[in-house]
Amino acid sequence: MNKKQKIYAIISLALIGLTVVLYILFSKQTLCKKVEIEFVDTGNQNIISKEDVKQIIFSEYKNLLGSPIDNVNLGLLERKIERYPSIKNADVFKEINGVLGIKVEQRKPILRVFSNSGKGFYIDEEGELMPLSDKGTVRVLTSNGNINYNYKGGIVKVYSDTTVSKTLKELYTLAKYIDDDDFLKAQTEQVYVTSKNEYELVPVVGNQIIMLGDMYDYEKKLKHLKQFYLHYLNQHSWKKYTYINLKYKGQIVCTKR
Fold first, then answer.
1. Per-residue pLDDT for the chain (257 aa), expressed as one digit of tens each?
2. 241, CA 20 to 30 Å: which among 35, 88, 102, 175?
3. Per the confidence metrics, is the pTM higher than 0.90?
4. Are 43 and 77 in contact (CB under 8 A)?
5. d(CA 132, CA 161)
6. Domains identified in the chain and CATH numbers
């Protein structure tokens, strides 16, 4: 590095240092003039609105606008927002121009549950329960039948909450497997829980019922079903069968109409 380059480097470092000092000195006096909320990775979801997030923020800081933006505890506000069951992650930051920015990542529901006891709810891809939204309905796999669980809101994790039934845990396991397989996801519309706590699948195309039975060897059963779809049903009429039975080990037994 020659003498001229050294001078430029020293001046650049001095300017950076001056900028930091000025920010520290004057940021405390910067008033919050605006709150900007951005949703990230939402796809076509419509679960929570910007107004919902603003309500959370202003419940914590009622006089936020016009007050020093440095009064906002970023970590505290992030945790407050993330307590909302439909929010997976929140990133709160302050801008030098007085704008409080919030980036919100919503949870991704993979199953909508119609329970016999209480209101319906979603289960997200990480196995956490979510309330239904008054902003609209997310198009996901649905489940009904012999499902008894009263979700009262808040954060409930399927595998770690002792109040969650075995049926609900199995439904999440099944929904997660289907959601992770693009073909099965496209083919499956509904999961029905029978009075014997067995599972039946309702396909998107066709009127047949797919009898999965219990969860024993469910992965193998669904792999057999997928092969049946790919190598047989695509060559024959979808209306040919009333039931496709996967209960028997290594077999698919079909009942004609």
1. 566 656 665 666 666 655 655 555 554 578 989 999 999 876 656 688 899 999 999 999 998 998 899 889 999 999 999 998 889 999 999 988 899 999 999 999 999 999 987 789 999 999 999 988 877 678 899 999 999 998 888 888 998 888 888 999 999 999 999 999 999 999 999 999 999 999 999 998 878 899 999 999 999 999 999 988 888 776 556 677 888 999 888 788 877 77
2. 175
3. no
4. no
5. 20
6. 34-106 (3.10.20.310), 109-256 (3.40.50.11690)
